[in-house]
Amino acid sequence: MAKRWYPVVDYSICIECGTCVEKCPHGVYDRTKSPSPVVKNPVACVDHCHGCGNRCPVGAITYVGDDTGWTPPKGKKDSKAGQGGCSCGGCC
Questions:
Q1: Domains of the chain in sequence order
Q2: From the centroid of its chain, how far is CA 24?
Q3: For a pLDDT cut of 90, what percent of the chain falls above it?
């Protein structure tokens, strides 16, 4: 688990669809606040996992500590950059 890696939600573009909350297998988000993506347990996020960010339909999720060159799929850079898995068995 990561201490310097966790998702950051840009609430100015987030549409509160709940996809990130529902699909995160690591318990990073507060499920009681769903569909609002509230990061409750940032240390549970797996280092270099981009699972929630890859699923966000508007590209509202980035990560503290991201040094991979990855940007949200709805971002301006190639969405394939840095898409390594986190080995959780999920679909990061």
A1: 6-64 (3.30.70.20)
A2: 8
A3: 65
Alpha helices in the chain (DSSP H): 19-23, 51-55
pLDDT tens digits along 33-42:
999 999 999 9
Residue 49 token pair: 């996992």
C-alpha to C-alpha distances, 53 to 18, 26, 27, nearest whole angstrom: 12, 14, 15
Taken in order 19, 25, 28, 32, the sign of the CA dihedral is positive
Which residues pair with residue 55 across a beta bridge? Answer: none
Question: Parallel, antiparallel, or unpaired for β 61-64 and 6-9?
Answer: antiparallel
Token pair belonging to 54: 């890859």
